[in-house]
Protein 1
Amino acid sequence: MSNNKGIITALEKSELADIRSIQSHSKTYLKSLFVDEQNLYGGSVWTDCTIGIYDKDTLDVVEVVEGPLGTIFCLDSDKSYLFSGSGDSRVDIWKKTDWSLVGTISGQRHFILSLATDQDYIYAGGIDDCTNVFDRESFEQVASLEGHNSNILSLATDENYVYSGSGELWWGGPGSPRPPEFESAVRVWDKKDWSCVHVLEGHTDNVNAISVDKKYVYSISDDASLRVYSKSDWNEVHRVQLPILRIDAFSVDEDSLYLGCSDGSIRTLGKKEIDG
């Protein structure tokens, strides 16, 4: 995790102990973080516009690449490439062998706030209230997933579906009067024909992150709740309401859920508690 002074803190999963804090590569602060098997990646805000690549074990800086002319709102990666989505509407594709820029997609007309990838497609969501789908080989747009009436703040994908979470980037924030047209939902899109097959409702504020596994869809929100939906019938099967202002960040592994909360805490929930 990172703070507004550009400090990166690594936590040991076994004890969730603070094992190391370092100054990030950025002269400002980091807006996005992503980790894969080899590296940790950090994207900075518009006054810096860089992406730092760190060795996941040592937290040493491996490379710093000059990003686009906008805040790096989101990052994703696979075995060969790093993907970044930014405030200048671009998705940039970076080759991991030498961190060279090998492709650029105009992903939205305005800010790109969320990214997801699979072996066939790149998904970019943002201020345009839709998720645009691009072919991995040609970079050509093949679909636009429209139906939300608010910004696409989060994306996830699995073998059969794309999941998009909505909210508004610019409004008064938690505790402010909520516009009546404000949608806070997770939509499920079938990859076979890009149709919306279900809307997962329940959140009353921005859906900040989504994760999926074989059985469930997990979502967290500015309404300070974690909601869990079953893939078998799309019904909500579990909800955790925390006594805080909001849940900002979220990650899932095989056994646990990790929640980054507005009070500065990281809270965990075992998946066995959901299966119950």
Protein 2
Amino acid sequence: MECPICANDLTDQVHMTCGAKHAFCFKCILKDIETNFELRKCPTCRGGDKFLIIDFNNVSDSDNFESLCYFKKSIPIIQSVLGNNSCLISEKMLLFYIKNKKQIDIVHKLIENNYNLNEIVKLIKWSSSTNKAIDDIISSTVLNIESDSLDAGMQMLSAFLGNTTR
């Protein structure tokens, strides 16, 4: 089958909630959301609502941000932050996923190194609910994580949180 957006074979297929359940590449839908800041109705028939239906049994092995494999690993993170436990993938979840690429990458690296998801989610919720600029701290944390100094990165985040929440 061919994706109506990119005209290539469907990869990481997702379906709209329109009556025909039209199929598209996940990366095409992500690019459309990133461009328009919303999950629009079905691009083929303009039907359905702002949800996607995803069959995670047919997922590519690719592990990059635009793959369903990476998105599937990100769902518990997104649901923990947003408090959404729906079986459908909502516009809100997809927008959060797109807008928080850097944070999601960090969370994946922390989880891979046995850090507690609940503690990490507290940090994300705190940083989202305040006007504190933590980009420098997150950037430093990413550098420490990438240079195999994960504990140093987490210590920086913990110190920052301790100093700003008092």
Protein 3
Amino acid sequence: MAQIDSIARKQAPAELPVRSLPHNIEAEQALLGAILVNNEAFYRVSDFLEAKHFFEEINQRIFELANGLPFLASDMAVHELLAARTVADSLHFQVALGKIRRASGHFRGRLIAIDPHRVRSFTKRHMRPHRHDKRERPTKTAQTFFALDVETGQPICFTTGTSARTAAAAAEELLMLAGDILNPEAGQTLVLADSEHFTTKLLDRVKTETKFDILVPMPNRRILRAKLSALPPEVFRPRWAGYATAKVEYTPQDSHAGPFYQYVQRQGERPEDYSFNAFLSTRDGNEVEELAVDFPQRWHV
């Protein structure tokens, strides 16, 4: 039996080597490189070339992706686009687009939240990397500020911040853009900001140069807490169990547009349990509605 198996193996035909289809990886890479650099190269071959014509699977996937996009934003195309437009052109475009969206009903214009975001940046400049938690790899990010319509959740406009440009300075430009887009009546729109926007300059500019009003938390420092705890009890009005509010006129140091209105929250049932925090508003509004109903909405946009 062993002799028969040996003869059968000798008589079995040898397996022929598998031959691959003719291909040229360098040519595929050169073509894809030309497509990414110049969109015209894609239009010249898209009528007859398909993804299956590429030998390498990765090249097939790249071509499929390119075939599904109406425009390939290559580095060169982006640089040419930016070089042909000034910052002023970009701002005018934001305003024009915002007015179209306002006419389409995207904004109600009653409450606006100034919302800071860090978006990933691919700049070649040296920048300090950031990460959201320890599990992520630090990446370069650009500080951006959005003006959002609180009640619709829609972005109205945005601007950027830099190491030399504070959040309050960026907010000034942001509100100017939002004002051009919304064109509100005086007293119609309340801007909700966070404590990093608490500056006398921003408060003065909002009150004197815009039709907006702004509500911003005051930094909860020891000196402020001491002043709030020294307020006479009769200025507070109980609202519900353990919660009372007060509204007093307040003019920040070096302000030329005050007085503003300080909304004070007092929490606790007994004097030894009291805790205080305060907001500053450019208008004499309903502090209970603005603190308990309006301002918390900025956290959910």
